[in-house]
Design goal:
alpha+beta
Length: about 150
């Protein structure tokens, strides 16, 4: 007679263990999702910073005289909405202005260092590039790092 209740007790205990396991797995998957979203924002921030740097280098390449007029601390290109208002996203993604942080000039070439920050939601990526500009508009990238 007493053994009939023990099966129900084991069943309830087994369900309790399965429920706790399910809650733990749900919490783990939620943490994984948050990590993935954070990494996605970080990658977006990097590519936005890279886009800003590329736009600045393109501006210098097609107008080499523009670089001669810049002084250290000058803004090469202003930050902007990367989608030109065409896409309404639920995120705050852009790059800040590209700034000339160092400049060395000799007879023929100019060696310049630029800095830009890409932002996407809470992720931030700082990008620095050092380039050598020739009079014909050719640009050699000496380093490109975050």
């Amino acid at each position: 007679m007493r053994e009939k209740g023990s099966v129900a007790l084991f069943a309830v205990f087994g369900l309790l263990v399965l429920m706790l396991l399910g809650v733990a797995l749900l919490e783990i998957s939620n943490i994984e999702l948050q990590m993935s979203l954070s990494m996605l924002d970080r990658v977006k921030a990097y590519y936005l910073a890279e886009a800003g740097m590329e736009k600045a280098l393109a501006k210098i390449k097609f107008d080499p005289a523009f670089l001669h007029n810049l002084t250290v601390g000058s803004i090469v290109i202003q930050g902007e909405d990367p989608f030109n208002g065409e896409i309404d996203l639920a995120c705050d993604c852009s790059f800040t202005h590209v700034v000339l942080t160092a400049k060395e000039q000799n007879d023929e070439t100019i060696i310049s260092t630029f800095s830009v920050t890409g932002r996407c939601n809470s992720a931030v990526c700082n990008l620095k590039a050092r380039v050598k500009t020739h009079p014909d508009g050719l640009i050699d990238i000496l380093y490109w790092k975050t």
